[in-house]
């Protein structure tokens, strides 16, 4: 049922945007942005269920909580960057959108730095000491 | 051994399941590549965990530390806008500091005025006056009151301890007479200190280098102070250096 609601909202918004775009491109953009925002916020609540399942899984299997925290951060960063980039792209600013995505990628990579440093240290420790 | 193995396998399976979920959740392909790298590192870490445990004791702690560092950095970046509570805290700290400064200034002013008064009204060669302010909470406002005044007399060459008019200060061997005003016995919480046991208002502090000053001088000074600043005579202690000849 919710799926139909969301699709209906999207279709309505699309038709309205097509009508308005000829006269006022500005309002067309605003309409698109707000529709996107609404659907995004609506779905954020649904994602919470999935995240709860993930947390449950992590707790039960006893993997370190830092893994789950990092992974959730990655998901959050990815979603926010993607959403912002799409809105900006709708407005026609392709270059700014790609910068936003780039920022998201950089932040995700920064997440990996502690892990990489631990692994590198371990590998170096594995190597026999130079004679 | 089997238990350990099953633990390890369970960890790996859980992390891989997590990774699959994350892949599904991620919004687009571009992000997926990067997220896959991080998740892959996690899987690698989990698979390596027995070796890691062998080599270094606490990878978990190290990883935690790195993550903490990262999040602290991120927080520091985003915390440039101070919140209202932060501003309030700052304001409180500032006003406390200002109150402290004001109290210090008041103390200094009081000391100077007491000193001037003593020098004017008496023959005593007052070297230093030390006033101690206490705070009392009156109708929500912190108001200061004078709890203790210490008067230090200049050293005189007169071994009798009486500071006589025109007494010259011996250059070689100065004698310092301290008149100390004791804290109000009934008011101050540390009245239990046995400073004024004998009831003599001018009882000198015998601790340290100080001893009693001459009673006459003490009486004169303490009555002056008591009259001028509304202090109890019992709060007044006269002391002088122990090596001074004024000690009785």
Radius of gyration of chain A: 21 Å
Instruction: Report strand % of chain B.
Output: 15-25%
**Number of helical segments with 4 or more residues of chain B:** 5
Mean pLDDT of chain B: 71
Overall structural class of chain B, as computed from helix and strand content, comes to alpha+beta
Annotation, overall tally of beta strands of chain A: 0
| Greatest interface by residues involved | A-B, 43 and 41 residues
Q: In order across it, which strands form the biggest sheet of chain B? A: 1-2-3-5-4
Q: What is the subunit organization of this protein?
A: heterodimer
Could you describe the largest sheet of chain A, including whether it forms a barrel?
none
The helix/strand series of chain B, from N terminus to C terminus, equals HHHHEEEEHE
SSE succession of chain A: HHHH
Rg of chain B? 36 Å
Span between termini of chain A: 70 Å
User: For the report, how would you describe the main beta sheet of chain B?
Assistant: 5 strands, antiparallel
Organism (chain A): Paenibacillus endophyticus
Protein name (chain A): Stage III sporulation protein AD
InterPro entries (chain A): Spore_III_AC/AD (IPR025664), Spore_III_AD (IPR014211)
Transmembrane segments (chain A): 6-21, 28-54, 66-85, 106-127
């Amino acid at each position: 049922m919710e799926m139909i609601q969301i699709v209906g909202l999207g279709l309505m918004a699309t038709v309205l945007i097509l009508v308005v775009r000829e006269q006022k491109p500005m309002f067309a953009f605003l309409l698109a942005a707000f529709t996107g925002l609404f659907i995004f916020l609506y779905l954020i609540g649904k994602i919470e269920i999935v995240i709860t399942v993930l947390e449950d899984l992590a707790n039960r299997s006893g993997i370190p909580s830092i893994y789950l925290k990092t992974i959730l951060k990655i998901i959050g960063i990815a979603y926010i960057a993607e959403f912002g980039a799409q809105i900006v792209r709708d407005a026609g600013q392709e270059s700014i959108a790609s910068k936003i995505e780039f920022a998201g990628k950089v932040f995700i990579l920064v997440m990996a730095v502690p892990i990489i440093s631990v692994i590198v240290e371990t590998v170096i420790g594995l190597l026999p000491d130079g004679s | 051994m089997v238990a350990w193995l099953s633990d390890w396998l369970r960890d790996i399976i859980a992390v891989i399941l997590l990774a699959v979920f994350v892949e599904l959740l991620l919004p687009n392909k571009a992000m997926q590549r990067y997220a896959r790298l991080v998740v892959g590192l996690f899987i690698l870490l989990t698979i390596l965990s027995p070796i890691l445990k062998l080599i270094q004791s606490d990878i978990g702690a190290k990883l935690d530390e790195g993550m903490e560092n990262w999040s602290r950095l991120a927080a520091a970046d985003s915390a440039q806008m101070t919140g209202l509570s932060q501003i309030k805290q700052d304001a409180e700290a500032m006003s406390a500091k200002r109150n402290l400064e004001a109290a210090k200034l008041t103390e200094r002013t009081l000391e100077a005025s007491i000193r001037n008064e003593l020098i004017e009204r008496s023959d005593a060669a007052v070297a230093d006056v030390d006033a101690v302010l206490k705070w009392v909470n009156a109708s929500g406002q912190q108001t200061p009151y004078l709890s203790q005044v210490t008067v230090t007399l200049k050293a005189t060459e007169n071994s009798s301890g009486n500071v006589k008019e025109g007494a010259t200060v011996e250059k070689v061997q100065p004698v310092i007479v301290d008149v100390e005003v004791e804290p109000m016995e009934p008011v101050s919480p540390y009245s239990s200190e046995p400073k004024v046991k004998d009831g003599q208002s001018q009882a000198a502090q015998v601790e340290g280098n100080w001893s009693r000053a001459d009673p006459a001088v003490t009486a004169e000074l303490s009555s002056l102070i008591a009259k001028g600043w509304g202090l109890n005579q019992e709060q007044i202690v006269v002391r002088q250096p122990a090596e001074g000849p004024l000690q009785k």
